[in-house]
Amino acid sequence: MSKIKFYYGNEVPLEMHKVRIVQKLNLPPIEQRVEAMEEAGYNTFLLKNKDVFMDMLTDSGVNAMSDKQQAAMLEADDSYAGSTTFTKLESKIQEIFGKEYFLPAHQGRACENIISKTYVKQGSVVPMNYHFTTTKSHIVVNGGRVEEVFKDEALKITSDDPFKGNMDIAKLRDVIETNGVENIPFVRMEAGTNLIGGQPHSLQNLHEVRKVCDEYGILLVLDASLLADNLHFIKTREETYQNKSIREITREIADLCDIIYFSARKLGCARGGGICTNSKDVYMKMREYVTLYEGFLTYGGMSVREMEAMAVGLEETMDEEMINQGPQFIEYMSNELMKKGVPVVTPAGGLGCHINAMEFVDHIPQSEYPAGALAAAIYIISGARGMERGTMSEQRDENGNETLSHMELVRMALPRRVYTLSQINYVVDRIAWLYENRKLIGGLKFVEEPSVLRFFFGKLTTTSQWQQELVAKFREDFGDSL
Ligand code: F0G
């Protein structure tokens, strides 16, 4: 599991860092947790963090920073234009990705806005290995459409395919031929494919995608938000790259892409984002949108402190021991849950441990949001909040019908270097108990349903009083435990 061997067996992932700043946590009793969930409209996004014990909603903007990142923040050069901090960050991007031009933006979706505004128009079709919620919304509001060209393996919950995030090259060609190359502004590859369980693509696959893009003269755009995890998997799962350094692998990836964008809330353990390219033409097209929507070209909506932290964070991402921590903890959590029979996505990916709600609560129809219901139940019984990644995260079609998601997952994100192994063991214990009592969990229905990105702020209620039955059984089995 880790590079460190244990003499007596029982191998566990070993943290290669120590904790020097801590934050006190609060675990309210289950009765209060039900009230909090009720108030939040059974949407874990709407819980107040003071009511949450382990915040496993996302890794976005909540990864632990290093001492060096914190130190760099003190050196930030506050200036609207031409700040030294920006130059530092730009140089780090040039060094790591080998891209000359860097456009700063306030976060990942801001990059998507700029890229979509620049390239997507009515009738555009964007092929990608899998969509991400904000990406798809930006493409759609600009009149375009997403075509997913994943392999059949991508949607198999349990699999031993090391690269479920790969593109199906034959399908990619087919989408280009069917829609006409003139309607394809770019092909998008997402590192660490978020919505199918943080699954990586191989570097060989990226080479193949590049070849197709070259044949047709289409731009290749990489969403590198989850690149750190993907780098770990290329290094550990792709034979050809086992002796290459993370820096070399990163450079080989970058050289294959025309445009790279990322959310620095994930990549670089800071907050913010950016787009980089070697094409002056692309840079010139996009920079007007940066000044229009983000801020001046030397900060793009970010604070200088965050830019300092990002520059250091990107450098630290080139350290194998640093990027291993997330995937190793996720693998540990997934394995422990599997030992208790809990259905999880395999192989374990990046970002978080993904629980298969379709099987966990197979008595709840997709129209009653099984993953949303399971996420609510997990919070109620443990105080840990995960995120629904299923039908609730989809949008209704133009006739108002539900778009049933391919998968119903609950993502228990593991922000990097934040939780300890005993905390992971606690959540595993509670989820295993919930699995034994899964028939008590019921469905959800909307009471307030926004038309765009409804999973962020929509409110729901339970289809029966199942939450009370869950509390009663919890008290029976756990006594007066929190
Ligand atoms: N692309 C990917 C692959 C992402 O995972 C995210 C964000 C974005 C783009 C958008 O970046 O949030 O900085 O605007 N994912 C977060 C998550 C929200 O929780 O998975 P952002």
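^ F0G complex. The pocket of F0G is lined by residues 58, 60, 107-109, 132, 134, 190, 194, 223, 225-226, 263, 265, 273 (CB under 6 Å). The two ends are 32 Å apart (CA to CA).
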